[in-house]
Amino acid sequence: MTRPGKQNKSGARALGAGRGVTYSTSPLLASKTPPWRSRFLVALVGLAFLGLLARAIYVQVLHTDFFQKQGEARYAHTLELPASRGRINDRTGQTLAASVAVPSIWAIPKEVDADGDKRQALAQALGLSARELDAKLNPESHFVWLKRLADDETAAKVKALALKGVFQDREYRRKYPEGEAAAHVVGFTNVEDKGQEGIELAFQKELQGRDGSRSVVRDRLGRVVEDIGDIVPAANGQDIDLSVDSKVQFFAYQRIRDAVAENKAKAGSVVVLDAQTGEVLALANFPSYDPGNRQNLSGEQLRNRALTDVFEPGSTMKPFIAGLAMETGRVTPDTLVDTGNGKYAFQGAVISDTHAHGLIPVREVIKFSSNIGATKLAMQMQPREMHEMFTAIGLGQRPQISFPGAVGGKLRPWKTWRPIEQATMSYGYGLSASLFQLARAYTVFARDGEIIPVSMLRQPHDQPVPGIRVFSPKVTQDLRLMLQAAAGPGGTAPEAQVPGYSVGGKSGTAHKQEGRGYASHKYRAWFVGIAPISKPRIVVAVMVDEPTAGSYFGGKVAGPVFSQVAAQTLRLLGVSPDLDVKSQIVANKNAVATEESF
């Protein structure tokens, strides 16, 4: 048995021996390290540095654009600087449409941090339900419009909530000071400020301008910290100066609106042209709409009837037939035409007048609006002659005007006409035209036989524009006297007369087409005239659709509208009266003159 004391001494000696061995004399280091191992390690370290260098060159030199964009996306933003849309002005500089800066509210959904109460308050301020707001604030979306073109009250309520992730910018909203009166002229824009109707659509390219941009750095709260890069300024849209006179437009709208109500009609239109320059002074329709508030709009309100609705022009064609017959030397104003007892059998059909006029001169064919007289004048001509004349006054062709939606009506090739069709065309059946086309056609009578181009834009001067000759000045002067008689005592439209001014024109009344035939109790009434007769300055065309209050003749329904619109327009244009008498209107209750072609 070993003694404890002896054992402890042996262990101490062994420990002392262990402490005496140094690291440099360790047996483990007795063998030398191979040289290739150190070189290999150095090579690995070198390759690692080369890899890092290559990566740095790849990131900093070769593909710097991509990584720059990725970095900038986290702090840099490009703000759009919207261009202000150009204004639409009338001929006097009165604003018909202008852009006003209003707030638009947007959000970054994943950054919106709001409790239930604040979300509810936000929904109420925006006029949304809680479900609608939740749908907009889908966390997967990076950007969402909460309300575009908001009012100032809504913007103030949202701002007061001070919600993180909800922001406001300024956009432009169109304002239309003339409202319903000029709606069919100016049209309107959508929420993206792009034209949808009227002049807004026709001149979209000129009005829209070009948006600019601004690059900025934003902090995590969306606040702009600083600008970076160059600012690209916005280029505002071009202003458009129309030929329309806002005062004439407003008065024309009021009168056609009142006429529709008085006659319990379906709709109505008025077109006013400057007979010297071809400028459109007014183009009004009823029903209309407010272009600044288009909720619950119907197609009836949107239709620009003066340009888009076509109808058989009826008796308004008779002066042109008489003019062609005189121009070709077949008749003179005093040539007698036998209209018989008011019934004329022709090609198996019966052509009727509302009264028996017997043997009358050509001038009274127009005054009494004789269908039989017009037929007998027309049948002296070749179909080609009539077709060329109709084409010359713009029928069957889309008006060359800077305005969307204008239609050309219907005028079939003359080779397809049957004799009965040639006859009915002489008093305005079998072809169709818009009210705007009729107004332009009547510039022939106002301009000594020339038809002139028309324009919705303000012309740089007030001098007469050149036209295309249809009739000679002498024939046209005779026609003006016939038109004056038609709108005078004993004619078909004495109520079209204007106190202090000589006027002339032609009324028309026709059954409306329905299916393949004509509606027995639906009429369209119109009157197209010029004033003053001594030196014509304006052409006014009026149409009332489906009057149902009792009277439906053009002279009775549309004539008074012509009278009032012509009188107001002549005064606004500063045209001096050419008559000494206060009123030329003659009311003859015992012998009411009627025209018309049924």
TrEMBL record:
It is found in: Cell inner membrane; Membrane. Residues 81-227 form the Penicillin-binding protein dimerisation domain. Keywords: Carboxypeptidase, Cell cycle, Cell division, Cell inner membrane, Cell membrane, Cell shape, Cell wall biogenesis/degradation, Hydrolase, Membrane, Peptidoglycan synthesis, Protease, Septation, Transmembrane, Transmembrane helix. Pathway: Cell wall biogenesis; peptidoglycan biosynthesis. Residues 268-565 form the Penicillin-binding protein transpeptidase domain. SUPFAM superfamilies: beta-lactamase/transpeptidase-like, Penicillin binding protein dimerisation domain. It catalyses: Preferential cleavage: (Ac)2-L-Lys-D-Ala-|-D-Ala. Also transpeptidation of peptidyl-alanyl moieties that are N-acyl substituents of D-alanine. Belongs to the transpeptidase family. FtsI subfamily. HAMAP family: FtsI_transpept. This is Peptidoglycan D,D-transpeptidase FtsI. The gene is ftsI.
